[in-house]
Automatic annotation (TrEMBL):
Keyword line: Transferase
InterPro entries xrefs: Glutathione_S-Trfase, Glutathione_S-Trfase_N, Thioredoxin-like_sf
Classification of source organism: Bacteria, Bacillati, Cyanobacteriota, Cyanophyceae, Nostocales
Entry's Gene Ontology molecular function annotations: glutathione transferase activity; maleylacetoacetate isomerase activity
Domain annotation GST N-terminal: ranges: 1-81
Biological process according to GO: glutathione metabolic process; L-phenylalanine catabolic process
Protein known as: Glutathione S-transferase
Length: 131
């Protein structure tokens, strides 16, 4: 198994995938993509044509869109389960996911761009995982 997650440390969309990989106890390689233009390089566009992270590559199979990646991981590596079985609980989990993607994150984009301009070390992947 060769799982590679293309990500940026400060990206909430990346983090939901990163956390899922950790929770499922999967072995994976993390590749930091600097969102200062690196996402437009042809080698990354070959994996993620819309120049977005996260992108997951599993043994040559490319998956983009964080929720699609979570769905893929849940189907392929079902234990431990990351989603509830109960219909109402599942609806709540899906609502939280979709509201986050469709409403909350777009609303924070302007703010995050300002932070990244003022603290380019974040943009350059300066954040280091400590544990
Ligand atoms: N709907 C996508 C959104 C992905 C997305 O917007 N990623 C941002 C970082 S959080 C990105 O890659 N921005 C760089 C760009 O668009 O060039 C998902 O859930 O994966």
């Amino acid at each position: 198994m060769v799982l590679t997650l293309y990500h940026s440390s400060i990206s909430p969309n990346s983090r939901r995938v990163w956390i899922t990989l950790l929770e499922k106890g999967l072995e994976f390689e993390l590749v930091e993509i600097k969102l200062d233009g690196e996402q437009f390089k042809p080698e990354f566009l070959a994996i993620s044509p819309f120049h977005h992270i996260p992108a997951l590559v599993d043994d040559g199979f490319n998956v983009v869109e964080s929720l699609a990646i979570l769905e893929y991981l849940e189907a392929k590596y079902p234990t431990p389960a990351m989603l509830p079985k109960d219909a109402k609980d599942l609806a709540i989990a899906r609502m939280v996911q979709l509201v986050t993607v469709n409403e909350l994150l777009p609303a924070t984009t302007t703010f995050l761009r300002g932070v990244m301009r003022k603290a380019p070390v974040l943009l350059a992947g300066g954040y280091k995982r400590t544990g």
